[in-house]
Amino acid sequence: MSVAIAAAAALTACSTAAQQDDPAVAADEATTPAMTPQDDRLEVTLFDAANAQVGTVWLADDAGGLEIEVAVSGLEPGFHGFHLHAVGVCEPDSPDPADPANIGDFLSAGGHLGADEGDHGAHAGDLPSLLADSTGAARLTVRTDAVTLADLREGDGAAVMIHAGPDNFAHIPERYAPDGPDDVTLRTGDAGERVACGAVGG
Ligand SMILES: [Cu+2]
Questions:
Q1: Model confidence at 17, in pLDDT bands (50, 70, 90)?
Q2: Are 53 and 160 spatial neighbours (Cβ–Cβ below 8 Å)?
Q3: How much distance in Å is there from the Cα of 196 to the middle of ligand 1?
Q4: pTM here?
């Protein structure tokens, strides 16, 4: 019995010593901070128009793309348009830069990132919609290679935006719109008011 205990103790000591001496383990511990610098990831708080914190977005550069994870609560159950907008500000009752007479919550964040490079559904800031459950909570993790974290930080920054309603991605069947969707649909996806916003850079 005492021999077995001694052997087990020796094994434990041996494996601990081996881990400490293992150059691979030591190198990994030494380089982990350098491999995940803060400029490769960012945590963004989402606010509603009453300036209450309603969620968090985690942004992380990922080989050749950007991983976006969002956790939010307080939404109406159902689908909500979810986009990256062009200006890194989250201001209630603010003017739309494209139409300053138009005042509304988070409008100063501008249109979708990359909106001038195509129709909605092909904007760099277009993302899959959030699905809020019966409690109003939503979680989503998505990866895009249309932007990097550096793109979001540069210039005017960017805003992570959640809308009140579902996004149609400007996908309107021809039987409903023989001439194609109108300019508003092609620009916005008709996701409605802006109900939560998180600013990046700017
Ligand atoms: Cu939007």
A1: very low
A2: no
A3: 10
A4: 0.81
